[in-house]
Amino acid sequence: MANWTETTVNVGGTDVALVRGGSGKPLFMLHDELGFPGWVTWNDALAEEREFLIPLQPGYGKTPRVDWIRTYRDLGGFYARMIREMNLGPIDAIAFSAGGYAAAEMAAADPAMFERLVLVAPMGIRPEEGEIADIFPLTIRTHMRATVADINTPEFGDIYGGEMTPDQFEAFEDARAEAARIGWEPYMHNPSLPHLLEGAKGLSALLVRGSADAIVPKGCIDSYKKVIDHAQVATIQGVGHRPEIENSAEFIRIVRDYLTS
Amino acid sequence: MKLAYFTERPYRWIDEDEVLKNKAFFALSNRHFDHHKAADDYNYFLDEYCYAEELGFDAVALNEHHGNPFCMGSVMNVEASILARITNKVKIVLIGNPLPVIKHPLRMAEELAEIDLISRGRLVTGWVRGAGSEQFFNNANPAYNREMFNEAHDFIVQAWTKPGPWRYEGKHFHYRHVNPWALPYQKPHPQMWIPGVLSPETVRWCAQHRYPYIGLGTALGPTCDLWDMYADEAAKLGYQAGPENFGYLIPSFVAETDEKAQELGRNFVYGGGQNAFSRPEHTLPPGYNSKGAIKMLARHPGGSWLGVNPDKLRESKDGELRPETDYDVVRKKLLSGYQKVQNNHQLIIGSPKTVIPKLKLLLQILRPGVFVFFNVQGTVSNEDRLTSMRLIANEVMPELREYAKEIDLPDSYQRTPGSVALQSGVSPAPVSDRGPLEELGLR
């Protein structure tokens, strides 16, 4: 198990909680709309060669809400400032779901910020076919269960199984509230994003999806592929919205290959 | 004391099994909607409100809900406009307009001014945040619900009182030309009565604005707690709260005999009653509740401070819906709840002789300046609804008016809320009488 610690970095007056772990070339990670689920197998594996930098999104309990962040584009701008002020760019990054939405906004604004960008089941673009599942009219447990194809996946159980503690419930509610605050309308996408992303020439990106993803449809990946020149697509069969947990081995292999290519 | 008449104007033509199958009224498909029956009912309910005026109620109260057959008032300002024209003396009370759901406070200011003008100053307007499900129905971001409520309210008060034209640049609303030509008949503006289901934030907000707070059939013990919270906040602001600051609405149904009243009264749990308004996933959308309320929900899921049924709170955490599919079993459970709410004095059913002492007891405990009768829900016939109204008006109200005088319950028109000064450091006088609660087995 790699060592990881939680520290804070001040960005424009906000103390951002930052999980750091592993060693090697930095890898910036943006968690999904339910918050950072904790350090799991795939983190451990990649931490052998990379140093994870995982900011905990403002409004998600540990990092205070930033009132002026009202869209995922604002959130992307906030993280971009963090990267600039920490002198991290150009950096490799991996971003999940709504975190992928924020990362795509960052890339659209400044593709040179990233050396390589992995977007795992990213939201942010309205798919031509299918719809991004509406997660807000779901109870937390229903939402969580919908993120995997098989709720008996051991690591999923480790993270989300058992009786929900009051602290967990509160953390989930904070996450849902902040995701709703900035992603309610238009629902988890930005109509201008594909147009701006199309102009982000030179961006190197890998799009990863699970073939049984019930949250982000294949249409989202197709739309991203359409506007990002040379984006690679990797589909992991038989898994849902959390391929990194449901098939860690395949996920690690794909991401490692891309980051070292 | 003002006595008001209220009904949710329920859509009465749904097979109960459909509601039970859907586990809620909200999200029930509108393929069950019959436009002929709805047309009849909208007209009937307007007539019913006119009858309330004729019977001597001081006020008629309207509300609105969206996408929900539980209440046919979807745009109550339309109904209020008609009532403004076809009634003559009753106050028209709106409890209330859901500001964050409507999202257009300037239009709201104009609509309400027109109603107040047409009625020649009989409008009492109130504001609500809108039910959780209505944030989905109207695509209103629940995480901004409270902010939008506060901002829209402040804007409307300005639009009614600050001569235009002026420009407004707020956080959620932006207007480059504020100059509503139609302004309220009443000066500076109509009274506002704020309904609620025991949200502490709303109670404090009411106290700060010196607005009467109307408890919507809330449990008696927690209602007294919130009354005290209001009074404490009022004391900080230098005034003594009294009956003029409080109102209470309670489901009430009266028939000639207790037996008949009990039989018809069961319609309060039709389809699951109030608790079946919406399913848990629609009741508490993300960000709708304050951080404090979420902490309370996380640690005390059985509490009633959110005004939500404890089972619903638990389901919200667990994500499990009630598993029953045998609707007769469900009905049996609902009927046991029917007795329980009567035992809690949150539902008053019976003949006039039976209900009068119960209602007097409520007045004694809560000391409200406004008392609102919420007539029966469910599939009750027009005839039985009208009989209930007539018995309340002719046999119950005179007794309550006498009793209100006896125990001194002034309303907000008799004594301006917030007008009784309280010196700094002096504890406020009690605003309720908890004495009978223990005797009732309540607290």
Task: Report on this structure.
The complex is a heterodimer of chains A (261) and B (443). Chain A is of the alpha/beta class and 261 residues long. Helix content of chain A is 37%, strand content 20%. Chain A has helices at residues 41-46, 72-85, 98-109, 140-146, 154-160, 166-183, 193-198, 218-227, 243-246, 248-259, and strands spanning 4-11, 14-22, 25-30, 50-55, 91-96, 114-120, 205-210, 232-236. In chain A, strands 1-2-4-3-5-6-7-8 form an 8-stranded mixed sheet, with helices on both faces. In chain A, helix 2 (72-85) packs across helix 3. Chain A starts with a strand and ends with a helix. Chain B has 17 helices and 13 strands. Chain B has helices at 16-22, 35-55, 76-86, 99-102, 105-118, 132-137, 145-161, 200-209, 220-236, 258-265, 280-283, 291-299, 310-318, 327-343, 352-366, 382-406, 435-439, and strands at 2-6, 59-62, 91-94, 97-98, 123-124, 127-128, 166-169, 174-178, 194-196, 213-216, 246-254, 348-350, 370-374. In chain B, strands 1, 2, 3, 5, 9, 10, 11, 12 and 13 form a 9-stranded parallel sheet that branches. Chain B has a two-stranded parallel sheet with strand order 4-6. In chain B, strands 7-8 form a two-stranded antiparallel ribbon. The radius of gyration of chain B is 21 Å and the shape is globular. Classes of the chains: A alpha/beta (261), B alpha/beta (443). The A-B interface holds A 136-143, 145, 164, 166-167, 169-170, 173-174, 176-181, 184-185 and B 136, 139, 141-144, 280-282, 285-287, 289, 291, 294-295, 297-299, 315-320.
